[in-house]
Amino acid sequence: MNEIALGVIADAVRASDLLVVERGDGLLHLAGGHGRGAGWAGIVEVRLDDEPMAAEAIALERVVRRSSSDAERIVGPYWSRRAALVPVGEAHLVIFGGDDMERTSDGELLRHAVRAVAACGTIPAERLLADELEVVHAVRALMSRRPDTVEATARRVAAVAADVLGCEICIVLVRDGERSTVAIHAIDGDHEDPTLEASLLALAERARAKPVLEQELAERVELVGMTIVSRLALQIGSEDQLGLLVVAHASHRPRGFTTLCQRIGRSLAEAAEVLIGQALLKETMAAERDRYAQQARSDSLTGLANRVAWSEALGTIEPEMRTSFVAFDVDGLKQINDSAGHAAGDALLVAAADALRAAVRDRDIVARLGGDEFGVLLVGGSEATARQVIDRVREVAAAWQGEDGPYRLTLTAGWAATRPGESPLTAYSRADDMLCAQKRV
């Protein structure tokens, strides 16, 4: 391909872009040219049936011109404000495009078009290799960093796809059961759009059968302050459809997607499936780990902290930190278990736990330490604070009555506040000693 000669031909008609298109088997294939014609050589292939301007020029066998105040789609991904489509013989169509094209006669355009076809020749092997390497580099750029969370991974995929494909907007939708994650990357920063998810889900259903390629949207879409003129939507995953990758061009830089862009998009969607799948697995494992950790530190009956969590909480208290404790014991639990059954006794313990929860602040610790014994750690509390908690607990307890019998909930309590230099464990032991003394009275 003689790029210098093609550049001279384009300059002769003041065209910024010259596209030499080969025709055959109902397809149009970009063989080379100048400007976009050179940059997209070998990576644009479209169906003639989808190209009304090209079909008109070929059917009429004459030059077809287009001129408008705003850029419009000419052929495939190519957009321009002014263009001339020139059929050359049975096998070629030459397109001249650019804002500054002069009114060259049809005869002159045909002469320059014939020269362009002759100068175009074949696509160099180096160019084809460069295209293959571009696909490899795109995937490598995406896989070079692997975030841990699904949201961070979706944002990473969107940012890389937008950068590699030169798109103004990229959107990634991830579906995980009932949960959906949407990441938007735009040229002027990331944006949130709460109304977007519903339209993305509908687009995802369309992309199940095959990629959705819209070189020109029938209806323009407004998104994060930009008007979208073309888009490519690709499914991420298969069968259960893990998600959706959407890349789009905006009206201020209108263009479509070459076959190379489509190949890169498909490769990125395949790589995204791996990354998002790993992120989902990491989140699932982290949630399971947290759940097991929570279970190991929770009392199965009341849902309060257990003795393990209580000991860990005592270990976090600094020596200078003011803290008070209350030790509680549920009265008459054994008698209720013996007379009304363990279900009634369990109900009594649950009611006691609820009373303790209602009496403390969120930052305080309430634990079931075993049997009918409960402990309360009041962060920053004094003995007065402890007595106030006891009063609130007894007030709540007094209003409760068991459903399985005429018995009530009462609790005995002991309290203490840490003294200077005293360990939290020693302070709680004093509260427990007071509880034991109260039980003996």
CATH topology of the largest domain: Beta-Lactamase
Overall outline: rod-shaped
Proportion of β residues?
25-35%
The amount of helix comes to 40-55%
> What does the main sheet amount to?
7 strands, antiparallel
- In CATH, the architecture of the largest domain is 2-Layer Sandwich
Structure class: alpha+beta
Structure description:
A hairpin with a 2-residue loop joins strand 4 (64-75) and strand 5. 40% of the residues are buried. The protein has 3 domains: 3-123, Beta-Lactamase (2-Layer Sandwich); 135-287, GAF domain (Beta-Lactamase); 307-440, 2-Layer Sandwich (Alpha-Beta Plaits). Strands 7, 8, 9, 10, 11, 12 and 13 form a 7-stranded antiparallel β-sheet that branches. A 6-stranded antiparallel β-sheet has the order 3-2-1-6-5-4, with helices on both faces. A 4-stranded antiparallel β-sheet has the order 15-16-14-17, with helices on both faces. The protein is α+β, with helices and mostly antiparallel strands and 441 residues long. Helix 5 runs parallel beside helix 8 and helix 10 runs antiparallel to helix 11 (342-359). The protein has helices at residues 3-12, 36-39, 52-60, 106-120, 125-143, 150-165, 196-207, 259-296, 307-315, 333-340, 342-359, 383-398, 424-440, and strands at 17-24, 27-34, 45-47, 64-75, 78-88, 92-97, 169-176, 179-186, 189-190, 212-214, 221-223, 226-236, 243-250, 323-330, 365-370, 373-379, 411-417. The radius of gyration is 37 Å and the shape is rod-shaped.
